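name: query_chain
kind: protein
chains: 1
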Amino acid sequence: MLKGKLSALLQQKSKLLKSILSQFIFIVFGLIALYFWQNYRAIPESHNAPSFNLVSLNGLAYNNNNNDKPNFYYFFAPWCKVCHLSIENLNTIKDKIDNTEINLYIIALDWRHREDVITFVESHDLPADVLLGTEQTKAEFSIKGYPTYFTADKNNQILSASIGYSTAAGIKMRALLQEL
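structure:
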């Protein structure tokens, strides 16, 4: 009798484990599908980063026509909660920026008032100046969501693009991709 109850209990646990495993696999595949759907056509049609002339919050003029090193683009909106969570992960490539191995462009889009961008920036420790993007910038880069990341080689050929949260390790890997 004890043997029968033990056998029934093991069968129940086995069914429960199979159910949990199948749900886990379903969730993982769902997240992978979401990632690919979210990043579908994230790279602009031309595969080159469009040229821009933008002004930073500090009033300095910037353009991305420097063909001397790779470029890393980070587009955000001040109201974006995911941007608040991910932007400080850019500090993982601070050594590459400080050593002038890479150009980092942090570009604010979808802002209504300059003060909104200032408030966002003041709440984060950022490794580079923040540029004030325009609707034209958003259209030329085909930005579909926030945050959006682009890596481009020194000829501004886009190597990778992604939309959404990226871990510090993910940003570091994108920066390393530029060195290949």
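note: Residues 21 and 141 are 40 Å apart (CA to CA).
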